Amino acid sequence: MDLRTSITAAREFRPLRQTGRMKRLVAALVGVVAIATVVVVSFRSLDEVRLPFFDREGCTATVGDRSVELSLEQAEHASLIAAIAVQRGLPARAASIALATAYQESDLQNLGYGDRDSLGLFQQRPSQGWGSAQQVQDPTYATNAFYDALAKVSGYEQLEITVAAQEVQRSGFPEAYADHEDDARVLASALTGHSRHAFVCRVDGEVDAADAALVASGLTARADAVRVDVLDRFGALPLGGFAPGGVRDGHMAGSTHYDGRAVDVFFRPINDANKTRGWALAQYLVANAERLDVQTVIFDARIWRAGRDDSWRRYDPPSRSGDRDILEHRDHVHVDVFA
């Protein structure tokens, strides 16, 4: 397969000549912004202030001393690649190889163009037997096709990432995959759950109101879409916190479960393997928060909330009787959606 080596476009600019009038205009605008900021701070506490020209939506994976920045679109695709590896029972190494490949081939974007007939996340070519043009532009199909081919590479777990990727892709520039190895390892470690509370997104949390009516599952349509997505991505998992007709007890006062907006996904017993699986799901949900209208994710005594958090905060549940592990969500991932 030929490699699409770059998708960046050169940008030219011409410096703006600052006349006296322009300088006065800039100074006036700066003054207006400063006054507006003071007014906002006067009426809202500092931790609630959101200045849109300072905020930037996107996601960050941090493992050790290395961080990787992604757009929300890239995060959705990276989390899909990792989730499918988890669902198929593949090692994190497989996710690292797939992520490095998609990074190089498409910059983690589902492209509708490429070299010759190359398309999609992995720039797979229909003429080379990867599937139809429609299929290779379906990220789920394309990712599974990549893993199908990787599984046929003998001993891929021990190969260098660039060597394993080349065995699958047959690129004209095989060394290029090495440029993305370190970032791919960070993403794979976080998104497969091996690095806990290591992946976080910044989203604005501005979501239109949805129909509050419950569907057959006892969830709102928005929450039911999350339920379906989780099962599609991770396979059969034990779910709870909802029931046909809705739930009326078993949760703390004011819980989103009573509105049919929350789903619990259980990872029992509490052990290292189940924590890894739980963090894979929790960080997948954060990566897809904008697409799924996710408001809150809680797991393993950590919480993330859309429109507020750019990190996983410690979660301290309200005081009440009961099993502390359950109250701190150490045995289940809680996800709720906006109303």
Layout of strands and helices, then pairs:
Layout: H1 20-43, E1 58-63, E2 66-70, H2 72-87, H3 92-106, H4 133-136, H5 139-151, H6 161-169, H7 181-191, E3 199-202, H8 221-234, E4 239-240, E5 262-266, H9 272-287, H10 289-292, E6 294-299, E7 302-305, E8 313-314, H11 324-327, E9 332-337
Antiparallel strand pairs: 1-2, 1-3, 4-5, 5-9, 6-7, 6-9, 7-8
Helix pairs in contact: 2-3, 2-5, 2-9, 3-6, 3-7
Describe this structure as you would to a colleague.
The protein is of the alpha+beta class. The chain has two domains: 58-195, no CATH class; 208-337, no CATH class. The protein is built from eleven helices and nine strands. The protein has helices at residues 20-43, 72-87, 92-106, 133-136, 139-151, 161-169, 181-191, 221-234, 272-287, 289-292, 324-327; strands at residues 58-63, 66-70, 199-202, 239-240, 262-266, 294-299, 302-305, 313-314, 332-337. The strands form two sheets. It has a six-stranded antiparallel sheet. β1 (58-63) and β2 (66-70) form a beta hairpin. The longest helix is centred in the N-terminal third of the chain and has 24 residues, at 20-43. It is globular and about 60 Å long. It starts with 19 loop residues before the first helix and ends with a strand. The relative contact order is 0.12. Residues 2-23 and 32-54 have low confidence and may be disordered.
